[in-house]
């Protein structure tokens, strides 16, 4: 547990919590402008959160402890990931937890909590959302694991800090075939996992096409605020992980104040660039039919598998 | 007699005593007496196993006990592991059986056979020669068959399942018998040390025959595809405490057989053996979990999940054999496989016992008829939820640690292990990854649809919690699961030295207090830290939200029902509808059968009176492999019937001609 790790453990969760809603606000604003609307401004998600936290908590009749606990589990797992993963600093406060498999599994655990909450409501929408989400997760998780594997084989470790610092030392690794294939696969699954177009439309409330929104339909007030915050944080964490796995430059490697500040700024720049690219892409994309999504995900699985094969054969 | 032998002896005596109690005591005392004594027997077995794992070996020979070969008892550390797992599962199942069997399986026969099943399993892993192993194996199969058939007079499916099981287990036995007899024929006698010596001068072909025959035989017991067909039938139809014992303890003995023969007696051997093992494991894992994801019968789902987990164990064993040149990675893979087996035993005990509790409390194990159990059955729901978390390889669950270790072993397999390994490792990783993803969906379905939401039938609405002995057993099993999940280091150092002993190498993992740190390759994970940080973050978050952000009390409100009045349970998603998207995605693999019958009103074809929808996911391997096989067998049998006319003269003639034929054959070949 190094000083840098401890600084990272404090700075990263704060940056993720504070910055993620702003990221979502920026993406919405860019979309709004490109679609010819004025847009509500980049701080709108924060204003929504403040409003929701001020509302009365609601307990829908017939729901149990799973429904109550799910938003907390969702935020907590994302917080743990932002605590341990090398986002702004290369060291982790808890190195034996900063494992890529552990991080992927933790983020999946959050999704599972929300799907169970959807089933716990006992409504048709909750079940529908949970069923669709789990179908997507069942196809996303293999791709994530295989892509992780492809990135880990050349490094010989699944430790995130090891992967990031290895790319820092050997920049050519970032453009190896295995790495590029894994990057494309990861982009597709991150789009699916964070519920963006073309897999799910985050701004829709059209009943028959919803995935994420169907699961969280019963949430209101502070619970909904937590769910919204968590989905923003997950988007931020996924984009940050994606950025640092392939383009780690700028990440703080010493514990000095300027280095850490530089790390946070680099993180913000990378995530914002990725987020804006995603938002621009979304303007030109329509949502896929639900049963076309598995084809997309199967394609990304294949890419990830090719990445593993490349990393084994070209090692 | 050392502590290991003493504890094993006590376990056997207690087991026999429990069987006598089961046969002799009155009905109202039977369940309690058998449960208590069998639990003690299981505890003694666990102590014997732990003592053997800690290094106290036990050896005894009883030459007069069995004709031809005698009985040799050898408890080494490999036996110790399996003995400890069997004993622990038996302990929990027996405690559970006190409450469970009193209602459902309190006949003289099942109660007397239950402890016998436990001690025959213990004897299988303690046997030190082939003769004793085979006899105990057969006794174990017969005991379990009797137990599977417990409820045959109530449900016809039980008899059908029993028939499948009887045939498959005996075919497996024939394969083991053939393999081990060929092996023994090359050795001085049939004890394991003699076989180890003989393995050095065995011809490669003979060694391969021995390995493949025993792999098939033991694999059928472990429920490996394509020999798995009995498992999803027999495990669900047995009483639940027996299901737990079969699914958590008996299937392990298949793994024991493969480890014992492949690694210990044959000493590794050829690479293609392990490629075959790995391939069978990968296919079993994916096929098993795919069918589990489609199943709507809770216990059938768990049965298929057993096939999946044994597949993962086989992937580990196969990887260990494949990269045997690299002792570090091989040891890691073997330790991961064994840890996964122990973890599977722990969480499968929880899941089967909870399923039994549901069947008893809600009167059904059909997920489409369950739901809403978290209110009336809080303990069972909590236990199943934790078991499902453990089974779905998510942190902080039990299977997460062992699958992490397995993936670490696959990652560190170097290309130096040969082209076959380089091709197989990515495929194995893909299989493990697909399995992990589908397992998450499967267990979300099992827990979310089965336990949460609103009750979907009258039985589920009137569910009641199980008696104290059953919930206590569930509590013990959950506690073991939790300890294995956060502190695998307790067990892993033992498993590491066990694996290094089997592979004759150094230990693959070092225990750094609470961190699993791999030796020789980089890799570290601390499940305890992970669990503590996650729980801490959740509690901190609850505190912040409750104390700082919102202080108001929760108000109860209506669910969103589209303004159309109260929602009924018919509007809920069922297990079938939950799995429907996945079923569509894997349509080509599972090939479900769907029939829709629309009955029109007599007045007009535009008016619909009734719609009947049927959807079945049949086991495709069963249809493609076994149906033609069974048809061929019956055709053959029908042809053979023509020979049996009832005429004694003719039968005597058959005997005469056969004898003559054999003599001529001998005369020609000799």
TrEMBL record, chain A:
Transmembrane region(s): 6-27, 65-88, 100-122, 134-154, 174-192, 235-252, 258-284, 296-314
Keyword Membrane included in the entry's annotation: yes
Localization per record: Membrane
Main localization of the protein described in the UniProt heading: membrane
Protein name in UniProt: Formate hydrogenlyase subunit 4
Keyword Magnesium among UniProt keywords: no
GO molecular-function term, one example from the UniProt record: lyase activity
Signal peptide annotation: none
Tree of life domain: Bacteria
Membrane topology: Multi-pass membrane protein
Alphabetically ordered keywords of this record: Lyase, Membrane, Transmembrane, Transmembrane helix
Annotated GO CC locations: plasma membrane
The species this protein was found in: Kutzneria buriramensis
UniProtKB/TrEMBL annotation, chain B:
Any one Gene Ontology molecular-function term assigned to this protein's record: oxidoreductase activity
Membrane-related topology note: Multi-pass membrane protein
Cellular component GO terms, alphabetical: plasma membrane
Transmembrane intervals: 6-24, 36-60, 80-101, 108-125, 162-187, 207-230, 242-259, 271-290, 302-324, 330-358, 379-399, 419-452, 472-492, 528-549, 651-669
Keywords in alphabetical order: Cell membrane, Lyase, Membrane, Oxidoreductase, Transmembrane, Transmembrane helix
One GO BP: ATP synthesis coupled electron transport
NADH:quinone oxidoreductase/Mrp antiporter transmembrane domain residues: 127-423
Source organism, top-level taxon: Bacteria
Localisation: Cell membrane; Membrane
InterPro entries: ComplexI-like_HydComp (IPR052175), NADH_UbQ_OxRdtase (IPR003918), ND/Mrp_TM (IPR001750)
Pfam families xref list: Proton_antipo_M
Protein name: Formate hydrogenlyase subunit 3/multisubunit Na+/H+ antiporter MnhD subunit
Organism: Kutzneria buriramensis
């Amino acid at each position: 547990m190094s000083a840098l790790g401890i600084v990272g453990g404090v700075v990263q969760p704060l940056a993720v919590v504070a910055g993620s809603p702003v990221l979502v606000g920026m993406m919405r604003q860019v979309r709004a402008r490109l679609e010819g609307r004025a847009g509500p401004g980049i701080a709108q998600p924060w204003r929504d959160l403040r409003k929701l936290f001020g509302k009365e908590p609601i307990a829908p009749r017939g729901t149990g402890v799973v429904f109550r606990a799910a938003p907390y589990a969702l935020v907590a797992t994302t917080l743990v990931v932002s605590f341990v993963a090398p986002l702004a600093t290369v060291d982790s406060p808890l190195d034996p937890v900063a494992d890529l498999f552990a991080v992927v599994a933790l983020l999946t655990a959050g999704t599972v909590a929300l799907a169970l909450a959807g089933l716990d409501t006992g409504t048709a929408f909750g079940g529908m959302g949970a069923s669709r989400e789990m179908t997507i997760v069942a196809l996303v998780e293999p791709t994530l694991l295989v892509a992780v594997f492809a990135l880990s084989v050349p490094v010989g470790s699944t430790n995130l800090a090891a992967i990031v610092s290895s790319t820092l030392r050997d920049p050519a690794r970032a453009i190896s075939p295995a790495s590029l294939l894994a990057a494309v696969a990861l982009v597709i699954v991150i789009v699916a996992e964070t519920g963006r177009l073309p897999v799910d439309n985050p701004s829709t409330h059209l009943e028959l096409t919803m995935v994420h929104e169907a699961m969280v339909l019963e949430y209101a007030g502070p619970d909904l605020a937590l769910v919204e915050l968590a989905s923003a944080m997950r988007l931020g964490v996924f984009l940050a992980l994606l950025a640092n796995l392939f383009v780690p430059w700028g990440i703080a490697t010493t514990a000095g104040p300027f280095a850490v500040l530089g790390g946070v700024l680099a993180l913000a720049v990378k995530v914002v660039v990725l987020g804006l690219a995603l938002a621009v892409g979304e303007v030109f994309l329509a949502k896929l039919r639900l049963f076309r999504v598995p084809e997309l995900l199967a394609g990304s699985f294949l890419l990830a598998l090719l990445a593993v094969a490349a990393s084994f054969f070209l090692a | 007699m050392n502590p290991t032998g003493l504890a094993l002896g006590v376990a056997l005596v207690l087991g026999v005593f429990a069987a006598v109690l089961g046969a002799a005591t009155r009905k109202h005392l039977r369940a309690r007496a058998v449960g208590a004594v069998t639990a003690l027997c299981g505890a003694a077995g666990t102590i014997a196993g732990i003592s053997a794992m800690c290094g106290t070996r036990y050896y005894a020979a009883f030459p007069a006990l069995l004709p031809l070969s005698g009985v040799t008892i050898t408890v080494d550390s490999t036996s110790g592991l399996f003995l400890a797992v069997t004993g622990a599962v038996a302990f929990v199942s027996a405690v559970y059986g006190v409450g469970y069997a009193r209602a459902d399986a309190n006949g003289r026969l099942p109660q007397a056979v239950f402890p016998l099943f436990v001690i025959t399993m213990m004897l299988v892993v303690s046997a030190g020669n082939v003769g004793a192993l085979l006899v105990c194996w057969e006794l174990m199969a017969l005991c379990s068959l009797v137990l599977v058939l417990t409820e045959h007079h109530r449900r016809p499916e039980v008899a059908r399942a029993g028939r499948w099981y009887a045939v498959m287990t005996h075919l497996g036995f024939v394969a083991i018998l053939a393999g081990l007899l060929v092996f023994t024929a090359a050795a001085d006698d049939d004890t394991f040390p003699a076989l180890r010596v003989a393995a050095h001068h065995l011809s490669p072909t003979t060694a391969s025959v021995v390995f493949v025959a025993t792999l098939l035989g033991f694999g059928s017991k472990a429920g490996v595809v394509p020999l798995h067909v009995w498992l999803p039938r027999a495990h669900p139809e047995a009483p639940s405490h027996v299901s737990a014992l079969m699914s958590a303890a008996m299937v392990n003995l298949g793994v024991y057989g493969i480890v014992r023969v492949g690694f210990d007696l044959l000493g590794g051997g050829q690479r293609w053996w392990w490629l075959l093992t790995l391939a069978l494991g990968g296919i079993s894992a994916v096929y098993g979990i795919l069918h589990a994801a489609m199943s709507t019968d809770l216990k059938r789902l768990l049965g298929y999940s057993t096939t999946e987990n044994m597949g993962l164990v086989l992937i580990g064993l196969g990887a260990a054999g494949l990269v045997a040149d690299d002792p570090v990675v091989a040891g890691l893979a073997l330790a991961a496989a064994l840890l996964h087996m122990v973890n599977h035993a722990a969480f499968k005990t929880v899941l089967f016992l909870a399923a039994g509790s549901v069947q008893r409390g809600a009167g059904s194990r059909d997920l489409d008829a369950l739901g809403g159990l978290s209110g009336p059955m809080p303990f069972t729901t909590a236990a199943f939820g934790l078991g499902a978390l453990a089974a779905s390889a998510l942190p902080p669950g039990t299977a997460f640690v062992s699958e992490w270790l397995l993936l670490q072993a696959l990652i560190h397999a170097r290309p130096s292990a040969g082209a076959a390994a380089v091709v197989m490792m990515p495929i194995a990783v893909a299989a493990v990854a697909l399995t992990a993803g589908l397992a998450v969906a499967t267990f979300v379905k099992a827990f979310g649809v089965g336990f949460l939401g609103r009750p979907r039938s009258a039985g589920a609405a009137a569910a009641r919690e199980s008696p104290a002995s059953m919930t206590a057993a569930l509590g013990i099993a959950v506690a073991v699961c939790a300890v294995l999940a956060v502190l695998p280091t307790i067990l892993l150092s033992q498993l590491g030295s066990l694996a290094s002993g089997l592979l004759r190498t150094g230990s693959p993992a070092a225990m750094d207090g609470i961190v699993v740190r791999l030796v020789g390759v980089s890799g570290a994970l601390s499940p305890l830290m992970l669990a503590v940080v996650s729980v801490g973050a959740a509690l901190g978050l609850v505190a912040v939200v409750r104390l700082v952000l919102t202080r108001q009390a929760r108000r109860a409100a209506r669910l969103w029902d589209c303004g159309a009045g109260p929602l009924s349970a018919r509007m809920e998603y069922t297990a079938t509808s939950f799995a429907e998207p996945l079923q569509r995605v894997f349509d080509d693999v599972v090939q479900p059968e769907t029939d829709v019958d629309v009955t029109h009103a007599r007045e007009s074809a535009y008016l619909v009176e009734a719609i009947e929808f049927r959807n079945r996911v049949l086991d495709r391997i069963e249809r493609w492999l076994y149906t033609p096989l069974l048809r061929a067998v019956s055709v053959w049998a029908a042809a053979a019937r023509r020979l049996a006319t009832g005429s004694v003269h003719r039968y005597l003639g058959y005997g005469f001609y056969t004898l003559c034929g054999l003599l001529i054959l001998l005369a020609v070949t000799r």
